[in-house]
Amino acid sequence: MHFPWWYVPDLTSPMLIAFIAIIHVLIAHYAVGGGLFLAVETGFAYKTQNSTYLDYLKRHTRFFVLLTAVLGALTGVGIWWTIGLASPLATEVLIRTFVFGWATEWVFFVVEITAAFVFYYYWGRLPPKTHVVIGWIYGGAAWISLVLITGITAFMLHPGGWLEHRSFWVAFFNPQFIPQTIARTGGALLLTSLYVYLHASLTLKDPKLRDLIGTRSARPALLGSILITVGGIGWYLRLPESAQAVLASAAVLNVLIAIIFALTLIVFILLYLGPYRNPGWLSPGFALALFLFGLAAFSTGEFIREAVRKPYISYNVVLGNQIFPKAVPGLRQGGYLEGGVWPKAFVSMRFPEVIVDGKIDRSRLLSLPPEDRLLVGETIFHYHCNDCHATTRGYSPAGPVLTGRSRESILELVTHLDESHFFMPPWAGTEEEAQLLTDYLVHIAPPRPGGMIHREIVSEQDP
Ligand code: HEC
User: Fold this and answer.
1) pTM above threshold 0.85
2) 32 close to ligand 1 (CB < 6 Angstrom)
């Protein structure tokens, strides 16, 4: 706990990452698949001397470069900002482990951007062959950056043998690397066709050209959905045991998994019946429906991928509340507040009376007046729980989930956090700190809603 806590009201900071990351992913997959699409299709248009298709491809490239280079880059940098603020320890571990991978990724990123601009601005001024080669350089560099970044994000779900052998290569070729690369490559192909359909149906009048685009882009999209399914099955089979258990036990994830299956099936059937068999169906409404189903399936998938890592941010490496698992026993002994640079500084400045010999005195914490106990309890909450729970409203808010619970039962929950739900990290403070956190939780938990039967009343009424 050597970093300050970033408090995002209602939403919690990790959910802010989730929002930005999902927008980024929806653009970044198109950035990869779109490169391959443009390389293949300009090659085809030159070969068949189809100048109307070439004109369309030029307009599509403009849309593509604007969207991916501007919004893609902005949200990409946005992810760096939010993860650095929300999960500084996990980010630090990733940077230390993968600095070489990231440097390589940025090189490919520069190649990508340069190739994209040359491809667009030198349109019609380059020999067709050279033009198509530039398209392939873009597509290839973009796909390699997908592979590189996937190795790093897959590591967070399953570090594999890295805990024993701390080498870059062991970290990169983790058990999740291949399944996720397959799924993301499929995702890039599928999502690109959906963007192409939407763009073409909205901007093209010529029905012949629309039909051509419908059939040409159906194959990569169908292939993409198959790759997503294959990669998804591999992802599931190679999940760490606890992540499989999370999937099986959390009701909301059960529902989301069912939704994902349904959406993928719908997209597949629509693709087959629509663009593949009946390209004439490709109206703006049809393309929009397909696009929205695709986005929904994607976003749900990313959400699940993030959710199953609990109680970790980086599996077995960094806990959700920004501490190393091996730090837990020490914090239980020496105190959670004492173990963190920032909470310690806060307590020392605000309540100098609890400091003895430069350390926070456990028992003096308990003799603080009630409103100060609440403030210390709230501080513990922010550092220990706010990664996954908002306070009184918003994302999984701690107050409402404790509605109507007694003080003993809340204290019991706090001290047995990981037993209450195995996807919560273990309690990492002293008994006194658990008391203060409980003060705060009791304070924010609403009373039992009126009109509900309570166990004491039930037993009184029993004959
Ligand atoms: C790594 C994430 C994470 C952290 C950190 C975390 N929790 Fe949770 N907690 C969860 C999840 C996930 C659930 C299940 C929520 C749901 O089903 O909607 C949960 C459930 C709960 C519940 C409802 C439990 C029940 O028995 O019904 C309470 C209360 C709770 N957490 C309190 C806390 C407190 C207090 C802390 C800090 C000391 C904390 N949590 C830290 C993830 C976390």
Assistant:
1) yes
2) no
